[in-house]
Amino acid sequence: MQTKITLPESDIPTHWYNVIADMPNPPAPYLGPDGNPVPPEAMLAIFPESLVMQEVSGERWIPIPDPVREALTLWRPSPLYRAHRLERALNTPAKIYYKNEAVSPAGSHKPNTAVAQAYYNQQAGIKRLTTETGAGQWGCSLSLAGQMFGLDIRVYMVKVSYQQKPYRRSMMQTWGAEVFASPTDMTESGRKILAEHPDSEGSLGISISEAVEEAAGREDTNYALGSVLNHVLLHQTIIGEEARKQLAMVDDYPDMVFAPCGGGSNFGGIAFPFFADKAAGKDVKLVAVEPTSCPTLTKGVYTYDYGDTAGLTPLMKMFTLGHDFMPPGIHAGGLRYHGDSALVSQLHQEGLVDAVAVPQLETFDAGVLFARTEGIVPAPESCHAIAATVREARQCAETGEAKTLLFNLSGHGHFDMSSFDRYFAGELEDFDYQESAIQESLRHLPKVG
Amino acid sequence: MQTKITLPESDIPTHWYNVIADMPNPPAPYLGPDGNPVPPEAMLAIFPESLVMQEVSGERWIPIPDPVREALTLWRPSPLYRAHRLERALNTPAKIYYKNEAVSPAGSHKPNTAVAQAYYNQQAGIKRLTTETGAGQWGCSLSLAGQMFGLDIRVYMVKVSYQQKPYRRSMMQTWGAEVFASPTDMTESGRKILAEHPDSEGSLGISISEAVEEAAGREDTNYALGSVLNHVLLHQTIIGEEARKQLAMVDDYPDMVFAPCGGGSNFGGIAFPFFADKAAGKDVKLVAVEPTSCPTLTKGVYTYDYGDTAGLTPLMKMFTLGHDFMPPGIHAGGLRYHGDSALVSQLHQEGLVDAVAVPQLETFDAGVLFARTEGIVPAPESCHAIAATVREARQCAETGEAKTLLFNLSGHGHFDMSSFDRYFAGELEDFDYQESAIQESLRHLPKVG
After folding, report:
1. What angle do CA A398, A400, A404 make, to 5 degrees?
2. N or C end: fewer C-beta atoms under 10 angstroms in chain A?
3. A174 shares contact with chain B (CB less than 8 Å)
4. Which of B68, B368, B417, B422 to probe the A interface (max A CBs under 10 A)?
5. pTM for the whole thing?
6. Do the domain assignments include residue A90?
7. How close A104 comes to chain B (CA, Å)?
């Protein structure tokens, strides 16, 4: 009865999979405020050319440079687990597998793209990267990658997470990065927010504005984003590629694939390589799991909006709650984002990707059940995928269906123990769905053209 | 250029290696205060018979029960790494390998014995285990194992660590355990210490006294120790067994093996399977690394002493600083132990095991270098092995020798970030060697017979 399915180092994928090649329709273009498509060159102020080319590429397979693959060897291939103990606890006929991305040094899937982005920026002569971070997973990942490729890293960390997770900050500093609680008074975007909301807990949207603003203003500095953009999701597809191969090793294939979905890279990373099969006629359900308090795919509108709060990014066609929507301070900081990947959004709009929203307490219930069966203490973001998988497995227990379920264990919760403390103390809330706040922020959607 | 050497799940060892079979002399017996050997039956008050039999066995290979091997699959076999990036940073001709035991759910090598001990106790009908923990690694490991085998766990955590590492406590609670800062007023041993030293920061010796006292007084409750005893070191030998096999896969063999040494299970775990080769004539140096502030092997005396502070354990012949020696509050809580494994001590006395002591700042220097090259943030205990390996690799850079060095990365530092904060803030001390304190505690060595 095999538990852990491992691949040798030589099986680290050699190419990233580009889902655009298999989408039924080309992606909606990024637009400027004038309503005209943004030319790729416009992105060169903050990204190296190689990443801009990946952002717009239609090629199905994009080769992974050797120095990136070498960096990935520090934790990849990641193991795929059959969750025997969780299955027994649920008394379900379903087979549950999880891909363990918590094994990276930063503790999540985020370094997969961080090392690629650091490499391409270093190749382009860039000395310094700015970025945002929510729960701190992405900030840690870029700090690690910056250290590996000799780049200085400056991180704008969402204030509520900065306070909840001081040791994520310590970890970034251990890898040599600078970290600030955002909103700061160091950027115009930050100062504007502080003037209006002096007690702002911050959000991913605000932190992105701050990091982009700084990068746009400096020649030697670029910006790196941990999710949302096409090239970020591209770099994460090695998760699904490996998982697909590992399942084949045990002669299995998922009926359903679950992943937490904030900006979309976690979900796209594991789901897109299975989408390739789906596009070829295979019956597989791809389920993005989000918090009920920040229900982008399940309650947002599909339209053009900014990726950040201040409106510095191009307009992207996506599911959004409005770029100035301020999500409640749930503990899954990485899922507190008003929008979503344009690729995930378009596929959801076309009915090819499913979405489900889960309330905070249910995610911690599931996370603790997982810790007590499979051992690993999961990140609050990952608890969302676990909760949706547990729901489905319980459904199978009722119907008797022996479905094969796969989820992405995107990260561990070692830096989230204060959240578990609050859960055990009965202090966590199920934030209500903020109908009026969402309606309010949707009134601020940009007019296009 | 291979980085990570992995074994399939089927290669989890089927037997533990018992070093006693290859020692030149039989181990010195445990003695009672009257100077007579303690009969194995005397240990049955706090240990199940199966573990007592392992404690005194002379068999070279002891089979690992299937349920224990199944539990081990959650994280084993653990990967062996070639530290290419660290080697380049040191510009050394030495080849550096490390066994990564940080991949277990509890974050260290400790679950290797925790699952075995939980299993044997459950088989013996025990409902509840008490234990001590220093840095929290062992407490977490037993909490995890207790959860897996349906046992209640009560942990006496050394007070200084309880304060430095609150999230280790949260993690134990996530796995369902009860945790107390030791010394407590719940046991006679604890009350006695508090009466004499109301501000006591605690020590492993004190916590052991508390846990043993409680277990000895209850029928349904046994005690579990995370290090020192023969059966604990036995369970850890799967580390060295796997490492030996992994090195053979890349046609290599270590000239030197390094591991942190507190109670000895970390060191014995990786070193003993190589001792088997040494006993057969192979030239391999086994180096136990300890803190200069708690220099048991390098500055202690080899004599009979108690394993705990209150004198509840049998007398063991070992290197000791005196059972009431109070080590300074260094951040490597797992190495704050006055004594050492009797097996490691005897082999050191016979010149078959080497020892070196490293000051606190050097260990953090090495740990940060490791984090910035290999990515993983190491536990302060593991930083000791890294520091000694780095010393040797730098020596090789001077002499030009291309030695093969292997160390045990016994755990990650995710719960030790406050220690790294203090290191970066320049607040960490190199505690002086406490000559007078050691001389004082050595005056309290028990009279035997």
Report:
1. 110
2. N
3. yes
4. B417
5. 0.95
6. yes
7. 8
Closest partner residue to B414 (CB to CB) among A9, A415, A420 is A415
Residues of B in contact with A417 (CB under 8 A): 166-167, 170-171, 174
Give domain status of residue A301, yes or no. yes
Q: Which of B176, B377, B420 comes nearest A372 by C-beta?
A: B176
In the β-sheet with B128-133, what is the strand arrangement from edge to edge? B178-182, B152-158, B128-133, B221-223
Q: Does B88 touch chain A (CB under 8 A)?
A: no
Does residue A448 sit at the B interface (CB-CB below 8 Å)?
no
Tell me if A145 is assigned to some domain.
no
Q: What share of chain A is helix, strand, coil (3-state, %, to 5)?
A: 45, 20, 35
Closest-approach residue (CA) in chain A for B66: A1
How does residue B344 score in pLDDT terms, banded at 50, 70 and 90?
Answer: very high
Q: A379 and chain B: CB distance < 8 Å anywhere?
A: no
Q: Name the helix (H) or strand (E) containing A40.
A: none
A74 touches B: beta carbon within 8 Å: yes
The interface predicted TM-score (ipTM) is 0.94
The token duo for B121 is 């106790």
A-chain residues within 8 Å CB-CB of B73? 2-4
Range of the domain at A329: 66-107+231-442
Interface test with A, best of B167, B242, B331 (most A CBs within 10 A): B167
Q: Select the residue from A87, A170, A382, A386 to test the B interface by mutation, using most B Cβ atoms within 10 A.
A: A170
Residue B330, pLDDT above cutoff 90 = no
Structure tokens at B188: 């006679």
CB spacing of B148 vs A70 below 8 angstroms: no
Q: What is the rounded end-to-end Cα distance, in angstroms, of chain A?
A: 60
Q: Does A190 reside within a domain?
A: no
Q: For position B329, which CATH number holds?
A: 3.40.50.1100
Output the six-digit token pair for B78.
Answer: 């653990």
B167 close contact with A: CB closer than 8 A = yes
In chain A, which residues have their Cβ closer than 8 Å to the Cβ of B102? none
Of B3, B173, B377, the CB nearest to A174: B377
Looking from the CA of B19 toward its CB, the CA atoms found within 13 Å total 36
Decide: A360 and A191 in contact? Cβ < 8 Å.
no
Instruction: Give the DSSP letter of residue B37.
Output: B
Q: Express each pLDDT in B6-38 by its tens digit.
A: 999 999 999 999 999 999 999 999 999 889 999
Assess contact for A394 and A326: CB atoms under 8 A: no
Look at chain B and report how many structural domains it folds into: 1
Which residues on A lie below 8 Å from B2 (Cβ)?
A: 9, 73
pLDDT digits (tens, 9 = 90+) for B404-444: 999 999 999 999 999 999 999 999 988 877 889 999 999 99
> What's the CA gap between A39 and A246, in Å, rounded?
39
